[in-house]
Amino acid sequence: MTKGSFLTFEGIDGSGKSTQARRLAERLRAGGREVVLTREPGGSPGAEEIRRLLVEGSADRWSPETEILLFTAARRDHLEKTILPALERGAVVISDRFADSTRIYQGATRGELRTVVDQLHALMIGREPDLTLILDMDPALALSRGLARESGEDRFESMGQDFQDQLRTGFIQLARRFPLRCRMIDGNRDPDIVADEIMAVVERALR
Ligand code: TMP
Questions:
Q1: Distance, CA 97 to ligand 1 centroid (Å)?
Q2: What's the CA gap between 64 and 105, in Å, rounded?
Q3: d(CA 31, CA 57)
Q4: Residue 70 sits in which domain range?
Q5: What is the count of structural domains for the chain?
C-alpha cells in the first residue's frame, strides 16, 4: 500500500471538473499538503504525446479497440512515472480523469467492449482511486461550454449531444457500481458552492 491519497475527478466534457480540480489543489496546498495535480490522457511526458493522438483529429480516426489500447498505454505511463512515485512520497494526487473515463467513454457507450475495458484495466493498471468526485451536469449546457472553448481538442465533443447523454447515464451508473469511492456532485450550481462541497467531502476522506 502507498502512503498518499489518490483522488480523481470525472464527468462529461464541459462539466467544470478541471476548474474544480485546480481549486481543490490550491485549497489543499494552502492547508500545507503536498499536492500533485495531473490529468488524463496525459500527466507524464510520454502520456502527453499519446494525448495528442487521442484528442485531435476526426472522430473516426481510431477504432474503439485501438482507442482503448492508446488510453491504457498512456495510463500505464502516467501511473508509473507520476502517480505511484507521488503516492509513495505521501502526496495527495488529484487526477483530472482516470480509468473511469475509459469505463464510460469506451466501455459504457459501446456495450460490447465493456469486458475488454475491465480485463485490460485488471491486467495493466489494477489501481483504483481512494475517492472519485463525479461532476454531474446538464449535457446540453456542458457541450456548449466545451465546444465554445475551441481548444482543438474536441474529438469527443464532436460526437454530439446523444453521445454526451449516454456518457451522463454511464457516470450515474458508475457511482452505483462503486458506491464506496464515488461521490456525485451537482455541478449545475455556482462554482464557489460546488468547490465548498468538494472540499468538505475531501477533508472527511483525508482525515
Ligand atoms: P479532457 O477534455 O477532460 O482533457 O479529456 C479529453 C477527452 O478524452 C475527453 O473528451 C474524454 C476523453 N477520454 C476518453 O474517451 N477516455 C479516457 O479514458 C480518458 C482519460 C479521456
A1: 7
A2: 10
A3: 41
A4: 5-206
A5: 1
DSSP per-residue letters across 89-132: HTPEEEEES-HHHIIIIIIITSGGGHHHHHHHHHHHT----SEE
Put simply, whether the predicted model's pTM sits higher than 0.70 gets the answer yes
Pocket-forming residues, ligand 1, beta carbon under 6 Å: 13, 39-41, 55, 71, 97, 101-102, 105-106, 156
Residue-wise pLDDT tens digits, 68-86: 999 999 999 999 999 999 9
- Residue with grid cell 461532476, as numbered in its chain: 135
Could you tell me the distance, in angstroms and rounded to a whole number, from the CA of residue 41 to the centre of ligand 1? 6
All residues at 6 or more sequence positions from 31 whose CB lies less than 8 Å from its CB, including other chains? none
Rounded distance from Cα 178 to ligand 1 centre (Å): 20
CATH of the domain at 54: 3.40.50.300
Query: Which burial class, exposed, middle or buried, applies to 120 when counting CB atoms under 10 A from its CB (0-12, 13-18, 19+)?
Result: buried
Q: What DSSP string describes 127-168?
A: ---SEEEEEE--HHHHHHHHHHT--S--TTGGG-HHHHHHHH
Which tens digits make up the pLDDT trace of 85-139? 999 999 999 999 999 999 999 998 787 899 999 999 999 999 999 999 999 999 9
